[in-house]
Amino acid sequence: MMSDLNLGNSLFKGYNDKHGLMICGYEWGWSKADEAAYVAGEYKLPENKIDHTFANKSLYFGEQAKKWRYDNTIENWFEMWGHPLDENGLGGAFEKSLVQTNWAATQGNTIDNPDKFTQPEHIDNFLYHIEKLRPKVILFMGSRLADFLNNQNVLPRFEQLVGKQTKPLETVQKEFDGTRFNVKFQSFEDCEVVCFPHPSASRGLSYDYIALFAPEMNRILSDFKTTRGFK
Asked: For residue 230, what pLDDT band results from cuts at 50, 70 and 90?
């Protein structure tokens, strides 16, 4: 049942329901501002289901979606890598091929205990989404997620779904005047994995630093589009 997936945007048959590009974080955000707005009755949830892409959640969530820092940062990254996302309507094939989820189906405003994500229920949640969606590219948004993937209780099961590892985990750090972060790359027979620092919770993370990874990301995203037959 595809309806039981925990997603941040709609599924589009032939685009992101299989072999799409998965954006995966730790868990759903629930900032203190969101919590206060909810308590005050100001946090409005949609009443009707409306198709929406990761690039344009305002179709469903309204204007509040345009203020979400996590989403906005990722969209800026795509633009810096040479693959801007179309925010008009449902966009094109590339926009419909993106699917957003999280390692865990939980919600919180801080990650007090990262080790909780290696608990069986959270591992099962992640692998269930991989089984159902079979993404060609996974962009992890959080530095520990590559560690979780390579956990001895996860990696063998992951390889059963996306094929054997073809390039082991590689950690890359670029020369930079400001704060430098690790970005991790790993390849499998049917999936490319890249692990970034958390877009909205990594102190000192700058757009200029992420832009230095444009050559690698342009190649991965261009190959993805070619494989899927997107322009």
From this structure: very high
pLDDT tens per residue across span 159-210: 999 999 999 999 999 999 999 999 999 999 999 999 999 998 888 899 999 9
Q: Which residue has the tokens 């969209």?
A: 75
Answer yes or no: are the C-beta atoms of 131 and 187 closer than 8 Å.
Answer: no
In degrees, rounded to 5, the angle at the alpha carbon of residue 221 between the alpha carbons of residues 126 and 136 is 35
Q: In what order do the strands lie in the sheet with 191-196?
A: 98-102, 21-25, 137-141, 191-196, 183-188, 165-172
- pTM of structure: 0.92
Among residues 138, 136, 143, the alpha carbon closest in space to that of 183 is found at 143
Instruction: Determine phi and psi for 91, rounding to 5 degrees.
Output: 65, -150
What burial class does residue 74 get, using C-beta atoms within 10 Å of its C-beta: 0-12 exposed, 13-18 middle, 19+ buried?
buried
Report which secondary-structure segment, H or E, holds 69.
helix 69-80
- CA angle 103–70–55, rounded 5-degree value: 95
Instruction: Judge contact between 176 and 163, C-beta under 8 A.
Output: no
- Report the first-to-last Cα separation within the chain, whole angstroms: 30
To which residue do tokens 């997603």 refer?
A: 7
Whether the CB-CB separation of 149 and 171 falls below 8 Å is answered with no
Q: How far apart are CA 94 and CA 13, in angstroms?
A: 13
Q: Which residue spans within 58-203 are E strands per DSSP?
A: 98-102, 107-108, 137-141, 165-172, 183-188, 191-196
